[in-house]
Amino acid sequence: NAGVTQTPKFRVLKTGQSMTLLCAQDMNHEYMYWYRQDPGMGLRLIHYSVGEGTTAKGEVPDGYNVSRLKKQNFLLGLESAAPSQTSVYFCASSPPTSGQETQYFGPGTRLLVL
Amino acid sequence: AQSVTQLDSQVPVFEEAPVELRCNYSSSVSVYLFWYVQYPNQGLQLLLKYLSGSTLVKGINGFEAEFNKSQTSFHLRKPSVHISDTAEYFCAVRNDYKLSFGAGTTVTVRA
User: Fold this and answer.
1) Residues 58..97 of B with a Cβ closer than 8 Å to A: which?
2) B18 to A107, B13, B26, B87, B107: CA distances (angstroms)
3) Residue B82: strand pairing partners
4) A42–B101: do the CB atoms touch at under 8 Å?
5) Nearest C-alpha of chain B: how many angstroms from A22?
6) Who's near B16: CB < 8 A, 6+ residues apart?
């Protein structure tokens, strides 16, 4: 199993450009999450999904959109990138079963917005 | 929503010395707590978790944590660190099926 994979690993954007980050998991997990990591702030939840076709806002959703068309994929979109969105983005997934609360993380995507 | 506070942002430690990373959580009826580790340029990896039962939880790589309900704490400890333990450590609490993370503690192990 590859676990959780993220594409791309690194990207540079100009202000106003758009892009999509792809997260894929091969563990048949129901729940998927997108976080951003900034120095001194830990990880903050952007959006999450509890199943195919469902999405919900997290702690810092502004400026981002998501889609979960397939169970194994969770896409994070930036419609008009801003320098404040320079960050490291992590995707995670977890099964819904009680007692299986562990989230499994991808390797991250480093995004620089100029 | 429940939250966690990591009391130390940076912890320098010598190799083979013990280390303790402090984490306090906001009180609640029931709480699920986690410690994750992030090695340089990698994603997060679960070290250990407390769901219920014994208050002393053992994790991977020789780490353990103690759940203390009266002090609302979940401190992480290792009796003897190695250079390879240099990493950032995150405490987290479960809210429904989401996690809320602390700001992180950077541990730097020196020879």
Assistant:
1) 90, 94, 97
2) 29, 8, 27, 15, 12
3) none
4) yes
5) 15
6) B80, B81, B82
User: For residue B20, which of B82, B88, B107 has the smallest C-alpha distance?
Assistant: B107
Contacts of A41 in chain B (CB under 8 A): 103
Q: What phi and psi values does residue B83 have, to the nearest 5 degrees?
A: -50, -35
CA distance A33 to A94: 9
B positions 15-54 inside 8 Å of A (CB): 32, 34, 36, 42-46, 49, 51
| Rounded Cα distance, A31 and A51, in Å | 6
State how far the Cα of A75 lies from the Cα of B73, in Å rounded to an integer.
36
- Test B98 with A33 for CB contact under 8 angstroms: yes
Q: How many CB pairs under 8 A join A and B?
A: 52
DSSP states along B48-89 = EEE-SS-SEEE-GGG-EEEEETTTTEEEEEESS--GGG-EEE
In sequence order, the β-bridge partners of residue B101 are: B92
User: How does pLDDT run across A23-53, given as a tens digit for each residue?
Assistant: 999 999 999 999 999 988 889 999 999 999 9
Going by C-alpha positions, the residue among A59, B27, B17 that lies closest to residue B5 is B27
Distance separating alpha carbons of residues A11 and A22, to the nearest angstrom: 12
Q: Phi and psi (nearest 5°) for B52?
A: -175, 175
pLDDT tens for A85-108 read: 999 999 999 987 655 578 899 999
- C-alpha–C-alpha distance, residues B20 and B41, integer Å: 23
